[in-house]
Design goal:
Keywords: NAD, Oxidoreductase. The chain is built from 15 helices and ten strands. With 359 residues, it is of the alpha/beta class. The chain folds into two domains: 191 residues, NAD(P)-binding Rossmann-like Domain (Rossmann fold), CATH 3.40.50; 143 residues, N-(1-d-carboxylethyl)-l-norvaline Dehydrogenase, domain 2. α8 packs parallel to α10, α10 packs parallel to α11 and α11 crosses α12. The structure holds nicotinamide-adenine-dinucleotide. Nicotinamide-adenine-dinucleotide binds next to α1.
Length: 359
Amino acid sequence: MIQKKYQVTIIGSGNWGSVAAKLIASNTLKLNSFHDEVRMWVFEETLPNGEKLTDIINKTNENVKYLPGITLGSNVVADPDLEHAVKDANMLVFVTPHQFMEGICKRLVGKIKGDAEAISLIKGMEVNPEGPQMISSLISKQLGVNCCVLMGANIANEIALQKFSEATVGYKEDEEVAQRWVQIFGTPYFHVSAVRDVEGVELCGTLKNVVAIAAGFVDGLEMGNNTKAAIMRIGLNEMKAFSKLMFPSVCDNTFFESCGVADLITTCLGGRNRKVADAFARSGGKRSFHELEAELLHGQKLQGVSTAEEVYEVLRQRGWQESFPLFKTVHEICVGRLPPSAIVQQSGNATQIPVYGRL
Ligand SMILES: NC(=O)c1ccc[n+]([C@@H]2O[C@H](COP(=O)([O-])OP(=O)(O)OC[C@H]3O[C@@H](n4cnc5c(N)ncnc54)[C@H](O)[C@@H]3O)[C@@H](O)[C@H]2O)c1
């Protein structure tokens, strides 16, 4: 019997997308059931020297804009044509900032292979008048594919340097598919495990960015480690309560996986959301997040501010604001309704969540 061979395409080529390409490309070379080549769709950009980013990646094997100094692997092929990049793939890795996903999915309808499986590394959600939708379910619904997620304590630049870390794959039903994702992401320095809780894993990865903004405010106000730990604890509780209200099937244990408390810790200590929120608080809320993002992140995108807005919209639609003082206050600070110092004044005021119990 001829063994089925899997072809992987990565949709996205930012900081984390490029590291995902490096991890996967190192494995497809070693594993017989995967084609060596890993295609990476690149949102084309012209760099200051006039060269196209795709051409440079294919020439130098390095994403000079989003992951400078790291060799991706000679079997990574950058492709600026989205439809062309996916046409032969039966394993699709989605890893772009979440605000671009609706448009990307629309362009891909009817263009992917019938046996394709997907995984989302994207943190964020879409909030429509009908209610919130996780990115994995947007992908599943629009493209008619099964979609797992991979989240974890994963600051991309550290994994690019092959420093040990862990991640969690969340899946719905098919454990065999989840194990295939574990196989192509896992390396001796990147340990991946799978849990049957796709919503729990994805909500952990999404909501921790809001807590990281709160942690950045605390740093910017120089309030010290006890305060930051308190904000992280309150934030973790709100993450758990919100996730379980949205999806009662979410498991408590998921919060102890890499995607849960570990990702929360690393993001509150070192991530980009923390960094920009720190600068925002130091400016007394006078400089906008938009301006600070452009100045400090050089083309990388901030997720926490838009996620805070999406979460706030869900809280507003459902009348849950008073039960989630940290989530609510982060948004109100981001839009200038409250000063950064409100993060500590308001976050301790959690009241009862009627359907969940005390926070
Ligand atoms: N960087 C990390 O450490 C990290 C770790 C874990 C998860 N993530 C998540 O991975 C996802 C992708 O983040 P990243 O760090 O790879 O990206 P990034 O923020 O480094 O880069 C932004 C990317 O968006 C692309 N882009 C810009 N405009 C676009 C458009 N109109 N349409 C499509 N693409 C466009 C850029 O080309 C670039 O590839 C996010 O959801 C993020 O939360 C990031």
